[in-house]
Amino acid sequence: MLPYGAAAASDPVIAAAGDIACSNPAPTKNACHQMATSNLLVGAGLAAVLPLGDLQYEAGALDKFQASYDPSWGRVKSITHPAVGNHEYGTKGAAGYFAYFGAAAGAPGKGYYSYDIGSWHLIALNSNCGSVSCKAGSPEWNWLKADLASHTNTCTLAYWHHPHFSSGPHGDGGETGDLWQALYDGGADVVLNGHDHDYERFAPQNPQAVADPSFGIREFVVGTGGRSHYAFSAIKPNSQVRNADTFGVLMLTLHKDSYSWKFVPEAGGTFIDSGTDNCHAAPGTPLLRVTGSKRVRLSSFRAVAQCATACTARLQAVVFAGRRKIRSRVIRRALSPVRTKLKFKFSRGQRRALRKALKQHRRLRVTINASARDAAGQTAGVKFKLSLRR
After folding, report:
1. Do residues 181 and 99 both lie within one domain?
2. pLDDT by residue (tens digit) across 275-310?
């Protein structure tokens, strides 16, 4: 079993960026670099490509998609899962966008859908709130709540065009607040956006822009697909990394209970940003849980433990053999929201004592004492009671 946050060779890699193709595909020094960014995608062994809206300027017409987007990012169309931007709605009902991508874009008139990649659940949303309402109680919000409730994946990523938080000239997008709240309540881990033509990474935060290292969502603004650059405006709370002069894509490696990111610039670019973080459960989830069979044998003395967010746990089983207490070896383990099976071990002398006690008693009482601490300093302790039988 891999340790928490470790990578497997088969972990899928996805790439994302928004604000991509000019109506005139010829590049200039600071604009229309859609071909250069698409070169980062072709032959990269990606599991999926996530275009983050405003894919085809200026109005998302089908003929423009075919003339500019298709020869560049269209080369990876077969693995593309797009989100719709405001420029696509320059054509009534974003008709060119839906015609170009077909079923991959979700139902026309909606533009929101979900799917799984590896162990992750991914959700594409429509943030054009004047065309598809984003408010609580709207069809999109109701669908999102139901989708989150019906998927129990440890890790969840959502993406759409307009960022809820941004230090770019468009600033914070208040209309998506109810979607952010639903995602936060549902335990989502990552949000990807475009719209502002820059790169920005935020620390995990709640929908009110309060830092939340345990249950917050980490947002990336990746409006670097090729169209142009924007300068930053007022720097927002929890903004950690920013760049306003590099085209490129964000690569994400999706591990079973964590993720790694790397911003990859177009050829000749020098700006990079990389890191890794852990997935978490929904706010309000107990930090530590221990479960398992209520009756175990000495040869299969196991339990299951998990933490709501990244934690370090200490567990020890105590067997009551008459007046004697026989303690297992201490288990110290990094845990995640993924259920982890743990085997409790005893010394050779303890095992002999336990077998002797089991000859006298059909069952012995056991208490597993467990404690945990997460990165934010929160602690928890639980006791799990069971019995050891012959």
Report:
1. yes
2. 999 999 999 999 999 999 999 999 999 999 999 999
Q: How many CB atoms sit inside 10 A of residue 42's CB? A: 11
Q: Do 219 and 285 touch, CB atoms closer than 8 A? A: no
Give the pair of three-digit tokens for residue 347: 């010394």
Report yes or no on whether pTM surpasses 0.85.
yes
Q: pLDDT tens digits, residue range 78-118?
A: 999 999 999 999 999 999 999 999 999 999 999 999 999 99
**140 DSSP assignment:** H
For 309, the domain range is 288-389
Q: Are residues 378 and 253 in the same domain?
A: no
How many C-beta neighbours within 10 Å does residue 90 have? 18
C-alpha span between 101 and 65 (Å, rounded): 10
Give the bridge partners for 76, in sequence order. none
Q: Dihedral of CA 105/110/116/120: which sign?
A: positive
The residue type at 352: R
Of the residues 251, 278, 305, which one is the last residue of a structural domain? Answer: 278
376 in a domain, yes or no? yes
Residues 306 and 238 in one domain: no
User: How many alpha carbons lie under 13 Å from residue 327 in its C-beta half-sphere?
Assistant: 7
> Would you give the DSSP letter of residue 205?
B
Distance CA 166, CA 179 (A): 16
